[in-house]
Amino acid sequence: APAEPVRVPRHATVVNHRALFSNYTFIIAGGGIAGLTLADRLTEDPNVSVLVIEAGPLDPGLDGILVPGAYAPYYYFWPNLASVPQAGLNNRTSGAITAQVVGGGSTINAMVYLRGDVDDYNAWGALGNPGWSWQNMLPYFKKAETFTAPDAAFAATANISWDDSVRGHSGPVQYSYPNYFYPGSANWWNAANEIGLPAVEDPLAGSKQGVFWIPSALDASTMTRSHAGRNHYERVKDSRPNYHLLTSNVVAKVLFRGKTAIGVCYLPTSADGSTACPSNVYANKEVILAAGGFGTPKILQLSGVGPKKHLKKFGISHVVDLPGVGQNLQDQPTLAVSYTFTANKVPNYGSLLTNATYNAEQRALYDSSHQGAYTLISSLSSNIGVVSLQKATSSYQQIIAAAKARNPADSLPADVDPTVLKGYKAQREAILKQFASDSIGVGTVHWGTADEALVYHLKPLSRGTVNINSANPMANPLIDFRTGTDPADVAVYTALFRKNRELFAAPSMQALGPTEAAPFGAGLTTDEQIAAVMRDQINPSNAHQCCTAAMMPRALGGVVSSEQKVYGVQGLRVGDISAWPFQLSGAPMATVYASAERLADLIKKEHCLAGAC
Ligand SMILES: Cc1cc2nc3c(=O)[nH]c(=O)nc-3n(C[C@H](O)[C@H](O)[C@H](O)COP(=O)(O)OP(=O)(O)OC[C@H]3O[C@@H](n4cnc5c(N)ncnc54)[C@H](O)[C@@H]3O)c2cc1C
């Protein structure tokens, strides 16, 4: 079958099962951010055909997806995903959220559009990944995006600043800023300045210590969400007969001839999986996995690419023994801290929920002129602050010293493969260097302007796992975030909690009369007391799951090379967030778009596509 020539129909479209070709130049598993970016760029060459197989449907344009203030992501959550009991969080289980829809996370995420910092990409490079650095990524960040500046007068009153030279102006992903802020945001911003978190000129310039407006994946022409389904599929589909998207189907596994990937088998998302692989489709050149931080390692393991010992338990014969597949799971945990106020300002984001008149006014304003509170994603305000460990606590050196004194093996599952442990040691050294730097954030503070502050932990040292629990491709994997199993994470989080508390104690926030509410509260004064409550409150996930097919040398437990080729086989790459070695000081979306742009260029060059050689 792989030798059959590619037939190109007249219209690119979402195809149904019967309209599929039997073979394509490339097959991409997962139509999320990475998958659709790759498909768009590869089909620029009319001689290439690409099939994307996506487990979810196309969003028909629901309000809760497109209108930020009406945000309702749960329509497209992957069903029934949850973690196992979390040993570091008093054995609580938690939901594990990831998207199942065309556009993946970009269709349902909170639209926060941030890059990592300079040392994030440099450190990935230093882990044995030539070609990865901030300098190398910057052109791809720009290529990926189009920034629309806010109205100049509004920007001046609202403290929005940016450096146009680091922003892209002609890429498919649209981003801008909401054109409204709640009055309480100004108190929060001033309070941040009062505790030594300055205004950052541009958080996308490679360092963002301080406070800034959150760039948002908003199409400024309509003030609606710019998601990958729109910017990397709908934008080009009518002119690309060579771009096929099969929705509501799940890739069960990669098909191999010897050690060469030749295609995939797939089945409808509605199937029960008892008859595995009813349908096959073949790739002439490559299969690319882009099924996200949970989906990609699952497909690899089901395909016989993973820890041999684990696969054996399910009767899966291994194609290549790669112990790192499904290890190294990381997320960016979140913590909500509740407050009551004696003098909070209205309107705040709670007003949309509690005041029907205000809500109706704001909706009418948005519908008529794309202005007002509905341009803000609900539950977030316009500002956020990023904090290095040094800024968070004067005890940062003690935290680093304690982390260095710990045996890294104690932070991983007992049966860890020696290569994975070696890779973790290398990562740990890189991250501890970042802890000592004042130019890399370890966490963020945020206040939505109503009854809750949010504290995010960006740089965990704890490592989890995602492993299949059945050979049935429809069964969800076992997800163990292992949040808080490394004591340094709890110490860092406690410091971030205290930074948030300091911010609320600053004069500009005190003017609103806040009281930290239960289960926290002023009665908790020691680190131990705070940490004990945090273990009951931390949410292990911000839906930023990553790093489960990590890009590192094989001797360090890596799964893919710096060109994102899976070790030990041919014709198979990982194109998505699974390939990251460790979390960024920032949210993932912009980097997933940009690194898929980078990978598309590498693939074009290697196969001489679209005049690339
Ligand atoms: C609710 C939510 C809020 C978030 N908020 C933000 C934010 O504000 N800012 C930010 O930067 N990031 C945010 N994120 C995270 C960000 O969206 C993800 O990190 C990003 O989408 C990852 O990109 P990806 O291409 O690796 O995977 P995804 O975009 O998740 O795409 C993977 C796709 O693969 C599909 N898939 C999985 N398994 C299979 C299979 N076997 N066969 C076929 N298809 C499959 C899935 O349905 C999905 O569409 C959020 C995520 C969520 C879910």
Description:
This protein is α/β, with parallel strands linked by helices and 613 residues long. It contains 19 helices and 22 strands. Helix content is 30%, strand content 16%. The strands form six sheets. Strands 1, 2, 3, 9, 10, 11, 12 and 22 form an eight-stranded mixed beta sheet that branches. A six-stranded antiparallel beta sheet has the order 6-16-17-18-15-21. The longest helix has 19 residues. Bound molecules: flavin-adenine dinucleotide. The site of flavin-adenine dinucleotide (FAD) has 39 residues, from helix 1, helix 3, strand 10, helix 9 and helix 19. Flavin-adenine dinucleotide binds next to helix 1, helix 3, strand 10, helix 9 and helix 19. Belongs to the GMC oxidoreductase family. GO terms for molecular function: flavin adenine dinucleotide binding; oxidoreductase activity, acting on CH-OH group of donors. One of its GO terms (biological process) is secondary metabolite biosynthetic process.
Structure described in brief:
The chain has 613 residues and is of the alpha/beta class. Strands 1, 2, 3, 9, 10, 11, 12 and 22 form an 8-stranded mixed beta sheet that branches.
Secondary-structure blueprint:
Elements: E1 13-14, E2 23-29, H1 33-42, E3 50-53, H2 63-66, H3 105-108, H4 118-126, H5 134-144, E4 145-147, H6 152-158, E5 173-175, H7 184-194, E6 210-213, E7 218-219, E8 224-225, H8 228-237, E9 243-246, E10 249-257, E11 260-268, E12 279-289, H9 292-302, E13 305-306, H10 308-312, E14 320-321, E15 334-341, H11 351-354, H12 356-369, E16 383-387, H13 389-392, H14 396-405, H15 418-435, E17 443-447, E18 452-457, E19 465-467, E20 478-480, H16 487-505, H17 507-510, E21 514-516, H18 527-537, E22 572-574, H19 589-606
Parallel strand pairs: 1-9, 2-3, 2-12, 3-9, 4-5, 12-22, 13-14
Antiparallel strand pairs: 6-16, 7-8, 10-11, 11-12, 15-18, 15-21, 16-17, 17-18, 19-20
Helix pairs in contact: 1-8, 1-19, 5-19, 14-16, 16-18
The chain binds flavin-adenine dinucleotide (FAD).
